[in-house]
Amino acid sequence: MKSWWIRCRNGVVDLESRDVSVPQAPSGQILLRVHATAMNRGEFSTRYLVEGSKPGGIEAAGEVAAVGAGVSNVKAGDRIMGRAMGGFAEYALLNAYDAIPIPECLSWEQAAAVPLAFLVTYDMLYPYGRLKSGEWLLITGISSGVGVACLQTGKLLGARVIGTSGSTDKLAKLKAVGLDAGIHTRAPDFAAQAKAITGGKGVDLIVNNVGGGVFAECLRALAFKGRLATVGSVDGVMKCELDLDALHSYRLELFGVSNKFTTALERAQTVDGFTRDLLPAFAGGRITPVIDRVFAFDELPAAKDYMESNAQVGRIVVRL
Question: What angle (nearest 5°) sits at the alpha carbon of residue 37, between those of residues 33 and 39?
């Protein structure tokens, strides 16, 4: 089968096309015939890569081709999406607990845009962020795939959403998706504007997609008992100021979202929660994934270049 591998050499990350054997489904796993996959910036970060090559792609949508021993929640021919190992290929493996049924209203491309972005969003806004109707949500770097997913999910929950972006065009596009207020900036200078927009109260929940460069400013923008979720580090700044006086005086909550050290049970619980609480919104047409561009499978290196140009609003999808 055709596949793309991520290769890291001397700190340079690129993609390499390979022909490899179709994998067999081990116990507890599903072999998926991939119809579409999506790009994820973190997968190409040199912070997480070692010298050498690995199969590319960490999510996919497609048809179940075969199941391993002990798998009973899906059968051959089912349409599913989820976190997948080696999603940049004609066939990929995923754990049975990662399988999410694709609502009939979603195309393959739309389904591929869901798993990673919305599972992360679910973690941040539901069990950890506890976002409620009427609260204020601020998203830094809102035009990213996760940023747009947070916007859509926040509006579903009845929140009022503020977003930061260095592009007025992107903010204008997101107004049509439900953005209540946009702050045009790439700098850590948005706290005063956020306080003004919220009538001096501050923001109840912030999703930091940018990194350490705006962390201190996020704290300054929070309301009493505000929560700050850190999920991205696009700016590469991994250490930052922490105002301890603000932390304890305002009873702030700080948390990160990553699957690096989560157990299989914890990942399965997130999928179950998403399927219960958020998947019906896709099936009912209340959320439609925002796709910026769709690339053909042999254009995957061009999709990587486009992602790294930071031109997109929403997800970048690759169609097989």
Answer: 155
